[in-house]
Design goal:
Largest sheet: 10 strands, antiparallel
Helix content: 25-40%
Structural class: alpha+beta
Strand content: 15-25%
Radius of gyration: 23 Å
Distance between the termini: 27 Å
Length: about 425
């Protein structure tokens, strides 16, 4: 997401009151300066277990050199800030799509009450159903346009990668794929939510709702981090998730459990969240890149025979063997609104694994600059809620004063009401 991948967090100091707890955690994790070795307990915490099998021999014998998620994510848009987020009138062919200022001016000139209802944005439709007007203070529409306002006023532009890929990614895993439009009554008449409108609000629900998350790795905020003579990144924050933790999470979570998780797919200052669909490992000889095998023992190297190989100074003292790994990973990818065909992206991450005498994974080193920044997923059964969910609402009586009060409370953080999200997805999928 987003190149129509799916963008995510900005790297400027955020407004903590206007963004989700999850987004704030992604940013704050990048401020940690701990050593970039395998963090004992990191993969275990990510998986929610006390202990973890780390022997490559055992993992290979259990068939965990490959695996796939039981849930296939659906493709969705990342609703970039520079187009107005989910306030973008994506179905309107005249809506400007290249500049925040032009897009906002168009919406002001062609106000919601002068526009054909089916061409309104997801946020405008949501406001009308909850009893608000899209152009009034406190609306979800206003919240969305304000995301890019300061940047546009200051610089004359809004970064094209910022959006809610951190909302689309978990939504595509935990919400069913909408397949038909849903009509809801409002004080302004019947409002038809298209499949893309429903996906947009579901992504926003996961982007800005309150729920607990677990992480592995850090976020790099440096466009060109310093390196040593071997090309190894020296900045702890830019080493990102250790390859050993990456390898173990894939083996145990996707391979053994068939569960997905979300990664920032590329290191660097931008964030591109994507859900993992499947993976497979290919091992190679670290002294001969062309010697490869599906079985690690065929290409393993004793540390004593490595000589002055790259990263020699960083190997743990207990290292007895080193083996190279190519992890070929299929990720869910984003699609612009209006396109419903599933999209996929296949990436290969290359690294070394350091093993002890019993083939247990001790740590690892990235061999190429391209690798994930961090990994994350919702903690166990934690699911989003919004501040307005504390107000009991009746889906059969939308647009009432109670709905309006609940929406106003939730719109402060830009999180749709759970009751409406549940109704839209239920009606669109069952």
């Amino acid at each position: 997401m987003f190149v129509l991948l799916a963008a995510a967090t900005a790297f400027a100091q955020p407004d903590w009151n206007a963004i989700s707890q999850q987004r704030a955690e992604i940013i704050s994790r990048g401020q940690n300066d701990e050593k970039q070795a395998r963090e004992l307990g990191m993969a275990e915490k990510f998986l929610g277990v006390e202990t973890l099998e780390t022997s490559l021999a055992t993992l290979e014998a259990q068939g965990l050199s490959t695996g796939a998620s039981r849930v296939t994510p659906w493709s969705g848009h990342f609703w970039p800030n520079y187009q107005g987020g989910v306030a973008a009138r994506w179905a309107d062919p005249a809506f400007p799509r290249t500049n925040w200022g032009a897009a906002e001016s168009y919406v002001k000139d062609m106000s919601w009450d002068r526009s054909y209802r089916d061409l309104l944005s997801p946020a405008e439709k949501y406001d009308l159903v909850t009893g608000m007007l899209p152009d009034e203070v406190g609306s979800l529409t206003k919240h969305q346009w304000n995301l890019g306002r300061n940047e546009y006023v200051t610089t004359g532009t809004v970064a094209t990668w910022q959006g809610i890929c951190h909302g689309w990614s978990p939504a595509s895993l935990f919400l069913p794929n909408p397949v038909r439009p849903v009509s809801i009554s409002s004080p302004q008449g019947e409002i038809l939510f298209s499949v893309d409108d429903i996906k947009a609000l579901g992504a926003l629900y996961w982007a800005n709702g309150n729920y607990r998350t677990v992480y592995a790795g850090w976020r790099c905020n440096e466009s060109e981090p310093s390196t040593d003579g071997d090309g190894r990144v020296l900045s702890p924050k830019c080493f990102d998730v250790n390859p050993a933790d990456w390898h173990l999470v894939l083996s145990h979570l996707v391979g053994a459990r068939g569960e997905s998780f979300i990664i920032d797919a590329e290191n660097g200052t931008q964030v591109w969240n994507k859900p993992v669909i499947d993976f497979r490992f290919e091992f190679f000889d670290v002294a001969d890149y062309n010697r490869k095998s599906s079985r690690f023992r065929n290409v393993i190297r004793e540390r004593s025979r490595l000589g002055r190989l790259r990263y020699a100074n960083y190997r743990p003292a207990e290292t007895a063997y080193v083996v190279g790994v190519r992890s070929i990973v299929t990720l869910g990818d984003g699609q612009p609104a209006g396109i419903h065909a599933p999209d996929r992206k296949v990436l290969t991450y290359v690294y070394d694994l350091e093993l002890d005498a019993d083939f247990r994974v001790l740590g690892g080193e990235w061999r190429e600059g391209k690798h994930p920044d961090f990994l994350w997923r919702p903690e166990n059964s934690s699911r989003p809620t919004s501040d307005g969910d504390q107000v009991a609402v009746d889906v059969s009586r939308t647009g009432t004063t109670i709905w309006r009060r609940a929406a106003q409370r939730s719109n402060v953080r830009g999180a749709p009401l759970k009751a409406l999200i549940d109704h839209l997805y239920r009606q669109s999928t069952y």
